[in-house]
Amino acid sequence: MAKRRRLQRHPGPKPKPKPNLRASGKDDATKKKEAPQPNKRRQTQTQQQHEEPTIPFDPNDRILLVGEADLSFAASIIQHHGCRNVTATVLEKNHAELTEKYPSADANIAVLVAERTKTDDSDSAAEPRQADAQQDDDDDQDDDDDSIQEEVHQVASAPPNNNNKLLYGIDATKLPSSVARPPHNRIVFNFPHVGGKSTDVNRQVRYNQELLVSFFGSALKALAPGGSIVVTLFEGEPYTLWNIRDLGRHAGLQVEKSFRFQARAYPGYKHARTLGVVRNRKGDVGGGWKGEERASRSYVLRRKGDVSEVKRKRPREDDSSDEDG
């Protein structure tokens, strides 16, 4: 009986050994490729932090600050930028109402008063006094000054080169003629907002547009020839929906340029909310609100004729600002 031949199975091709990626250097390359890319927003914020801040005023300018809330911006430009002719205004009707909303306001008021008394040779006390906003006015019915009372912090014997003061009860949309005379070289409104009138975005946009249009019309009466109005807003929606450039055109103004607002240029400045400080359930002032750290932009507006004149006199600046033609 014939023996069966046992079939021999031939092994298949041996698998190729895996290359030593570490030895070949490919492992590091792969790791680099798979490494997460840095956050673009963080890169942008870092670049902005190293940019030279733009300061839209000079120490000798006659400056009107509108809607100053806790007055930290006013205190900063006086203390750190040497401004000596600042009229800081708040909507709150008196000191008690202001400090109820912004407990830190007293420290900033002290800067305004101290800066006035520091160079005053006399020993007169810097006491607040009540002043009628219409005491120097003509019979101008359009200004509606009849019921406005302004509490003024100032020193009667202050030197002529130091005229900083604080006025209470000033509505940005109805600047009294006493504030407008003499006119100002710079009028600054940082972060205008009507507050929480509505949770509907479209209504909020409309309310804030109305606020700005009314402010522009009122501010023009207080703006010196060739002067500028500076408005600072947060970047992104809903603030971009306000269309500040179009609102300016509607009032006869034109955006000459815009630039990034950098809070670090104003030591001590803290963004204050329109509704006041944030309080917890116990009524204590809470933290967490850091509006000064949010991306913001300032818009410099001038009368349309003045923009053309400024551009003609100076070369085009090669910086981070953009001009509106």
UniProtKB/TrEMBL annotation:
GO terms for biological process: rRNA base methylation. Residues 1-61, 116-164, 305-325 are annotated as: Disordered. It holds the Pfam family BMT5-like. GO terms for molecular function: rRNA (uridine-N3-)-methyltransferase activity. Residues 64-273 form the 25S rRNA (uridine-N(3))-methyltransferase BMT5-like domain. It comes from the Eukaryota. Residues 1-19 have a biased composition (Basic residues). Residues 24-35, 305-318 have a biased composition (Basic and acidic residues). Residues 134-149 have a biased composition (Acidic residues). Transmembrane segments: none annotated. InterPro entries: BMT5-like (IPR019446). GO terms for cellular component: cytoplasm. PANTHER family: FERREDOXIN-FOLD ANTICODON-BINDING DOMAIN-CONTAINING PROTEIN 1, PHENYLALANYL-TRNA SYNTHETASE. This is 25S rRNA (uridine-N(3))-methyltransferase BMT5-like domain-containing protein.
